[in-house]
Design goal:
By secondary structure, the protein is an alpha/beta fold. Helix content is about 30%, strand content about 20%. The structure holds S-adenosylmethionine (SAM).
Length: about 250
């Protein structure tokens, strides 16, 4: 049986949800079992783990992000920028091809970061600074997402690569953001619309990861190790967990 540690720093129900349930004069469990002849009573109302199954294994979105960065690892080269830590650059980049890794975070108390600024207002980073920007799981937390992507491309050298991942399905962030600062879930259409029209953004490629089983298991906090790899690797583009995308920065316009 899969057991998860208790969540830290998070009440099991938010006040908002409690208010909604009491305003409706019911609770979700009664609604499920008495108003309808519930044919799926085994589907739990609460996840097995509220933190993506992290205490039992690899969160399913990270299983896919690992695949994406492994596939694009030749792009991790030269002067690299990453958000929050240099973990992915060090894990997937060839050390012989990396010149330096800068770490960006809006949080000034992040000691792993040497650049403390908001990516949506990143004028402090000179244009054409990096060969690669690893921008994983951050755009969901930035309200001004187009401005952030515009800076992400602006700071790339010509031929440099933006490696991004965004959640299509995810619980509200338990660590960064939370209810107030977790803004977006993406589709391939919204990624395309955001990137198209950004100066110097070219060769956009998008990879969809996941299927309905993976979506449900991820939300329930089931770790990747608990699901057969061929079932996780089946791609149903209508039920993505996460997207990976790459963008090449072209020469500056004359
Ligand atoms: C969920 S982490 C993702 C980054 C990490 N590389 C990863 O893959 O787990 C999100 C990080 O983005 C930072 N962040 C949120 N909004 C930001 C912004 N506007 N500019 C720069 N960093 C931001 C957060 O403080 C946090 O460190």
């Amino acid at each position: 049986m899969y057991v998860c540690e208790s969540p830290v720093g998070e009440s099991r129900k938010t006040k908002t949800v409690e208010r909604q349930n009491s305003a409706a004069g019911t609770n979700s469990e009664n609604a499920m079992n008495t108003k309808h002849n519930d044919p799926f009573p085994w589907l739990p109302l609460e996840p097995y783990c509220r933190k993506w199954g992290i205490s039992a294994g690899t969160p399913i979105d990270r299983y896919y992000i690992d695949q994406f960065l492994h596939r694009l690892s030749p792009e991790i080269r030269g002067h690299v920028l990453e958000v929050k830590s240099d973990d992915y650059a060090r894990r997937y980049g060839d050390p012989n091809r990396i010149v330096s890794v800068d770490v960006l975070d809006v949080l000034t108390d992040n000691k792993k970061a040497n650049l403390h600024l908001d990516l949506a207002h990143a004028d402090g980073i000179p244009a054409e600074s990096y060969e690669c920007f690893i921008l994983t799981q951050t755009l969901n937390l930035i309200y001004e997402v187009r401005a952030a992507c515009t800076h992400a491309v602006r700071i790339l050298k010509p031929g440099g690569t933006l490696l991004g991942t965004v959640s299509a399905v995810n619980r509200i962030s338990a660590e960064d953001g939370g209810l107030d600062d977790d803004y977006w879930r993406f589709t391939s259409g919204s990624i395309r619309k955001i990137i198209e029209g950004i100066p110097r953004a070219s060769h956009l490629r998008i990879w969809s990861y996941g299927n309905v089983l993976a979506c449900c298991a991820f939300l329930y906090g089931v770790p990747a190790e608990a699901i057969q790899p061929d079932r996780l690797d089946y791609v149903d583009p209508y039920f993505p967990v996460v997207y990976g995308f790459s963008v090449i920065a072209s020469e500056l316009a004359a």
